[in-house]
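Example 3.2
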Amino acid sequence: MVDWSPLDAAISLASDLEVEAFALSTKPPKYMQNEDRSPDEVWGVGLTIRDISTGKTLTYAPGLAAIDETMQRRLNASDCIAIDGTFWTDDELPALSVGARSALQMGHLPLSGERGSLRQLEGLTGSRKILVHINNTNPILIPNSPERQAVESQEVEIGCDGLMFDL
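Structure, written as tokens:
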């Protein structure tokens, strides 16, 4: 039996653990773009997980299209964030001739630039910041690259398989 819950409603997973799913993106995957659908239909979700016993919170946002005021408040209230690090630039795939759509067209906020997620995370204090969902074209994966150094200089971690943390 499945118990359905609306987005933005916290549900208890255990006596000391709750999760809240929230909308991240209305951008459908490429194979669904020509389908008849509502323009505000949610295709990407994030999770905020709270450990009631420690009072700590993790926000997981792997397909982040934008950081609006609501998202900024959610991130500021989190002790740890695992956030979309898919692309370094908006034109990453077209510039490499491996795709035609930009990061923003695919529903991913690029890391770099004036409106990029790194700039928007600069004022975030007290949170552990981890980049997840990193595309293999992203130059932050290259050790000692200027892009990786820019990320690390802002005390943002580059996620990897097997990464563990405590809340």
